[in-house]
Amino acid sequence: MAELSGVGEMWRHKRVLTASLVGTAVEFYDFYIYATAASLIFPSLFFPSSSPTAQLMASYGSLALAFFARPLGAAVFGHYGDRVGRKVTLVTSLMLMGGCTLAIGFLPTHAQIGWWAPLILCILRFGQGLGLGGEWGGAALLAVENAPPGWRARFGMFPQLGAPVGFIAANGLFLILGTILTEEEFFAWGWRLPFLGSAVLVFLGLWVRLKLTETPEFAAAQAEAPPPAMPLASLFKHHLGAAIAGTFAVVACFAIYYIATAFALGYGTTTLKIDRSDFLSIQLGAILFMGLSILIAGWWADKTSPTRVLAWGCVGTVFMGLIFGPMMGAGTLLPIFLILSLALFLMGFVYGPLGAYLPALFPIQLRYTGASFAFNLGGILGGALAPIVATWLIAVQGVEFVGLYMSAAAAISLAGLWWTSRE
Fold first, then answer.
1. 391 φ/ψ angles, rounded to the nearest 5 degrees
2. Which of 39-53, 113-127, 220-234, 341-355 has the highest mean predicted lDDT (pLDDT)?
3. Domain encompassing residue 386
4. Residue ranges of the Major facilitator superfamily (MFS) profile domain (predicted)?
5. How far apart are CA 89 and CA 77, in angstroms?
6. Which residues contact 186 (CB under 8 A, 6 or more apart)?
7. Is residue 1 part of a domain?
8. Quick one: which of 141, 142, 139, 143 has its CA closest to 155?
9. I want to staple 134 with a disulfide (CB 3.0 to 4.6 A). Which of 93, 139, 188, 365 is the partner?
10. What is the pLDDT of residues 366-413, one digit of tens each?
């Protein structure tokens, strides 16, 4: 019987990890195809202006909009995740995110319906942010609350692996379409296919998640005491310091990611005039280093602590930021590939352990709200403004200053980690 019980536990763990990885990969695929399109497609199709820079910044503004929706999504989905359960909340967030992404694929352009096009695009982008605001925290809890002793960071890294998987799927599809379609076909209708294809991936994610049961830790906490009536109010009243420190701790990962992906893509294809397919190819190669470092970070965090791994990743980012601008400014593929690979490799160390780090800051019945709120508020500080500020810095100071944005973000995250280590 013990052997059968062990086999059943193994299959349960596999199902949980698959659900946390697949669901998060789908969510991040949806989020990243928008980031890619915001750099390549949307500036000319939805934001007509007198200059390419103004178009790009307007498009990045719509990209940033979802980051401001994510804390609201964290509050709403966190409320029900802490009161009702992880499973039903994760299913709802996935449906919201996927529905908005699918609708973008059918959206007419500015040339067809005028200013209604960017307005509806921004509304759908806001809906994407709401969905993702409830996704990450629930997926992280699904993994770590099912983890055996000594495995929380390695289980917690599975939803983090959804980021590179989603990125590879998103940018890989854009790369394939850009290769097989002409420029006119790509801008006329080809860009819509990644958004329409999201429906298939969402169905897959729902199929996996609907087979889950509630996490053991949450079920035990529910049986022991009723959940707070207003989890967000309880969080602010009793755990505000942890929420603020956790918010600062995640700033670096968002700054690195959106500068090394969305900003770099826009800068490389517009300012440096690098072929779109070539740039997408080097980004796909660089993202593999992020997947590798997430795996290393998960193992290292279980052997030491998530805080220590995150801190070392931030230290490395401070120094990496000093050379990021000059290497991007070199304008040739090899130095750009090397610096993007280094940036995304460090990204794995400031991102991979977050699945174990943030939930540990809060009690079980406030974890969904606390982890989601800190993660998504940090996204505003680190990610929402990153492409916009980087584009502005280039215009007024030069590309050399862009890396300093990441160095400053890493310093902020170090301060948050130091604060929580004192608790």
1. -65, -40
2. 341-355
3. 7-422
4. 16-423
5. 6
6. 177, 178
7. no
8. 143
9. 93
10. 888 889 889 988 888 887 777 777 777 877 777 778 888 899 999 999
Identify which of 249, 233, 255 has the alpha carbon closest to the alpha carbon of residue 374: 249
Global confidence as pTM? 0.85
Residue 3 structure tokens: 């052997």
| 17 inside domain | yes
Sign of dihedral through CA atoms 122, 127, 128, 134? Answer: positive
Contact (CB, 8 A) for 407 and 322 = yes
Q: What CATH number corresponds to the domain at position 116?
A: 1.20.1250.20
Q: How many CA atoms lie within 13 A of 48 on its CB side?
A: 9
Cα 44 from chain centre: 25
The three-class DSSP label of residue 11 is helix
What stretch of H or E contains 63? helix 52-83
Instruction: Give CA–CA dist 374/230, Å, rounded.
Output: 17
The 10 Å CB-count burial string (b at 16+, else e) for 195-214 is bebbeebbeebbebbeebeb
- Would you say the C-alpha torsion 242, 258, 353, 406 has a positive or negative sign? negative
Q: Which of 107-121, 186-200, 363-377, 389-403 has the lowest mean pLDDT?
A: 389-403
| Residue 314 domain-assigned (yes or no) | yes
Q: pLDDT for 49-59, tens place per residue?
A: 767 777 777 88
Q: Which residues of 233-265 are buried (b: 16+ CB within 10 A; e: fewer)?
A: ebbeeebeebbebbbbbbbbbbbbbbbbbbbbb
pLDDT band at 6 (very low <50, low <70, confident <90, very high): low
Sign for the pseudo-dihedral over CA of 121, 123, 129, 132: negative
Decide if 2 is inside a domain.
no
What tokens were used for 147? 């983890």
